[in-house]
Design goal:
The complex is a heterodimer of chains A (about 300) and B (about 425). Chain A is built from ten helices and 13 strands. By secondary structure, chain A is an alpha/beta fold. Chain A folds into two domains: about 220 residues, 3-Layer(aba) Sandwich (Rossmann fold); about 60 residues, Alpha-Beta Plaits, CATH 3.30.70. Chain B has two domains: about 130 residues, D-Maltodextrin-Binding Protein, domain 2 (3-Layer(aba) Sandwich); about 230 residues, no CATH class. In chain B, strand 2 and strand 3 form a beta hairpin. Chain B starts with a helix and ends with a helix. Classes of the chains: A alpha/beta (about 300), B alpha/beta (about 425).
């Protein structure tokens, strides 16, 4: 059973094709991550799943039905930015959204969420007095307050500090545990790596990655080596290296096809001191950059 | 339907807590006491300093009479209260007429300019004669404060009294008899005689031109205000919802038409609240002045019915404009034609109150956007209009409102989610037609 299925969906705005022949399926009960550069079509895709936009072509099914209008109590939605009445207080705005989703007595649920996300003291403050991180959390509560079967979060982590990020991440994991399907888009690759059952990458309106993290990494093979060297400059003298990313504390090297890591280690060991040498699969971050980085754009 | 009520409640509360609504409410007691306060202020505001008037008396006899009368006025106790003057004193001084009149006038004018005196009065030599002489038959008052009418208002009485008596005397007419014979005719302006509940004939009441104008005018303005306070506010709220991306969340929870309906019901309740409060205030004031019958209960009921209809009609249009625009300034362009239609009845208000049953007044009452305001205004002018007219007006307004709600619903559904450049009116019409 899939919570969401899209087949051959295309959406254009004027002469710009925002989403091009996109197909995907989100298994029920999974956490599904959308990644992709800015302007690649993530938000448009989400809005089409929400039925805020209608596709020009293609088929979108949510819970197996082709629903005809946006309004449904089965989906909770956190839009990309804002989405709260500035002049209302936190408690009222959450009550309003909960009632709109058909909850008749949302107070206990709201109180529970506010305390869980550390916002209890802000319940009767106006939304406009909240910091960006706090209003992001309030907005998250608004999206999940009615315990929807499908939760769609457009960039839930933007503007959050590490503590709040963790709080929200736990909340999302909690939703999954309670049986909800979660779709979220993010620029935070490590969050996507750690949280998502499936990852979907869209680039220039087209699907470029779709699957579990393992299956994606397998596709890119074990061509990445993590190193810590006393003199990193020697890497530029060696053969068999396609790309060096120097993070200061350590370096990440991508090998050209057919290079043997063992041979590389021997070469390096002859020239400088090695304190770390690890054959690894590329990180999601690395894969992202390989697809959408300047080198990929140039080729 | 439950969701419509949720939206209704939020819109109502957001509006009655908004600044514009509160300001409108605060205005009410100000308006209630305003007329009294203004009257008091103006009453106290009479400039009571002495007026120095030079009199160039070509007759040689009028000045002494005026001076005598002025002294009587100056010492009259009715003109002061507890030692404080209520009306100014008049200090008259005679100026000998000179041979060169123009030169003398200039000289006196300069003295007025130099604040040496306040004004001068010139009385023609022929004034007291019973047969008019063209060149000498005049009284002229020269001053550089044309709005200060205190002296003019006073001098008319003694001057007329003396001069007319002289003329009659010269013509050998007995002054008493003539004055009785030419006493002015006063026409009483009354309503119609009716029978009261006990079967007794009730005397006709004197109509007051001021109240027969002000009451209908007040009803018209109240209706206008009720529409203009909540309609544009709702439009602004919708634009805010679009700008803050709240609209996306709302549309994810409630179908667009229901969302609009909830908002419309909200503003209808707001305007009915406003009308009720103002009518209650108006009734209170009218009752205080023993004029409660100026606001009959039937008129109040009609006001509420037509107020609700007007808000539904204009509210739908305002909501559509709000949904179509992403910024307040874009909305202003689209608002212009609507405002012209709303304001149109106000421009015709004077002729319509003067002749509430004219063809123009009746005709414009059946032009739906103007119907609520016009019917209410005309009904408030005694003795009112034929009963069939306001009754026939209701289905017409409701039909037109339904049309507005339908068209606005289509614009709203598309507009609420678009961002950026506002659509042209031709595009809006396309949305309405195609759906």
């Amino acid at each position: 059973m899939n919570a969401v299925e899209m087949a051959g969906v295309t959406k254009t705005f004027g002469s710009v094709t925002a989403v091009d022949e996109l197909s995907l399926s989100v298994p029920a009960g999974s956490v599904y991550g959308f990644i992709g550069p800015n302007g690649s079509g993530k938000t448009t895709t989400i809005r089409m799943i929400m039925r805020i936009f209608y596709p020009d072509r293609g088929d979108i099914r949510v819970f197996g039905e082709e629903h005809s209008q946006a309004a449904t109590d089965r989906i909770g939605y956190l839009p990309e930015e804002r989405g709260l009445y500035k002049k209302m207080n936190v408690q009222d705005v959450l009550t309003f959204y909960a009632r709109l989703k058909g909850c008749n007595n949302p107070k206990p649920e709201i109180d529970a969420w506010l305390s869980r996300l550390g916002l209890s003291d802000w319940a009767d403050k106006r939304v406009e007095t909240l910091s960006k991180g706090m209003s992001q959390k309030v907005q998250f509560i608004a999206a999940v307050i009615s315990r929807p079967e499908l939760v769609i979060l457009d960039e839930p982590f933007s503007g959050l500090d590490p503590v709040n990020l963790e709080v929200l991440r736990d909340a999302i994991v909690g939703l999954k545990r309670e049986g909800s399907t979660v779709i979220f888009s993010t620029h935070d690759m490590s969050a996507a790596e750690k949280m998502c059952d499936q990852i979907f990458m869209i680039y220039k309106g087209r699907k470029v990655l779709d699957g579990t993290l393992d299956s994606i990494q397998d596709k890119y093979g074990s061509d990445t080596i993590r190193l810590r060297l006393d003199d990193a400059a020697i890497l530029s003298l060696l053969k068999g290296i396609e790309r060096v990313a120097d993070f200061g504390k350590y370096q990440e090297v991508r090998l050209t096809n057919g290079t043997d890591p063992q041979q590389l280690l021997t070469q390096i060991a002859g020239r400088t001191r090695v304190s770390l040498f690890e054959v690894a699969r590329p990180s999601l971050h690395d894969i992202f950059v390989r697809i959408a980085g300047p080198e990929a754009q140039a080729s | 339907m439950n969701k419509v009520l949720v939206v209704f409640k939020r819109e109502y509360l957001a509006q009655v807590r908004s600044k514009s609504f509160i300001i409108t409410l605060v205005m009410m007691p100000l308006l209630m006491t305003g007329s009294i306060v203004v009257h008091r202020l103006v009453g106290d505001g009479v400039d009571t300093r002495d007026r120095r008037i030079a009199v160039v008396d070509h007759t040689g006899e009028v000045f002494s009479v005026l001076q005598q009368q002025a002294e009587a006025w100056n010492t009259d106790e009715a003109n002061s209260e507890a030692g404080k003057r209520l009306r100014p004193k008049f200090n008259l001084s005679a100026v000998e007429p000179a041979a060169d009149r123009e030169k003398q006038q200039l000289e006196l004018s300069n003295r007025v300019k130099a604040k040496d005196m306040d004004a001068f009065l010139e009385i023609g030599a022929g004034l007291v004669r019973s047969t008019p002489t063209e060149s000498a038959d005049f009284v002229r008052y020269y001053s550089d404060s044309p709005n200060d009418a205190e002296f003019l208002r006073w001098v008319r009485g003694p001057l007329n009294q003396y001069v007319l008596a002289q003329r009659f005397d010269e013509a050998n007419l007995p002054v008493d008899i003539v004055q009785n014979a030419i006493r002015p005719i006063d026409i009483g302006n009354l309503g119609l005689v009716s029978v009261d509940a006990g079967g007794q004939i009730k005397e006709a009441e004197e109509t007051n031109r001021l109240t027969t104008f002000l009451v209908p005018y007040g009803f018209c303005m109240l209706m206008f205000m009720a529409v203009m306070v909540s309609g544009p506010q709702m439009m602004q709220n919708i634009i805010e919802e679009k700008m803050q991306r709240i609209a996306e969340v709302l549309i994810g929870s409630i179908p667009p038409f229901q969302l609009m309906l909830g908002k419309l019901l909200g503003v209808m309740a707001v305007s009915l609240t406003l009308i009720s409060l103002y009518l209650a205030g108006g009734f209170f004031v009218a009752n205080y002045f023993d004029k409660a019958d100026l606001i009959p209960l039937s008129q109040v009921a009609w006001m509420l019915v037509y107020g609700a209809a007007a808000m539904l009609m204009f509210g739908a249009i305002f909501s559509a404009i709000g949904a179509a625009c992403s910024e307040i300034k874009d909305a202003q362009t689209l608002l212009m034609p609507v405002m012209i239609i709303v304001v149109l009845p106000l421009m015709l208000i004077v002729p319509i109150i003067q002749a509430p049953n004219s063809a123009l007044a009746t005709g414009i009452s059946f032009f739906p956007p103007a119907t609520p305001m016009m019917m209410i205004t005309r009904m408030a002018v005694p003795p009112g209009i034929p009963m069939w007219q306001p009754i026939a007006g209701i289905p017409i307004v409701l039909a037109f409102s339904a049309l507005c709600v339908f068209a606005a619903g289509r614009v709203f559904r598309i507009g609420i989610l678009i961002q950026g450049k506002p659509p042209k009116i031709s595009e809006l019409l396309k949305w309405v037609v195609r759906g």
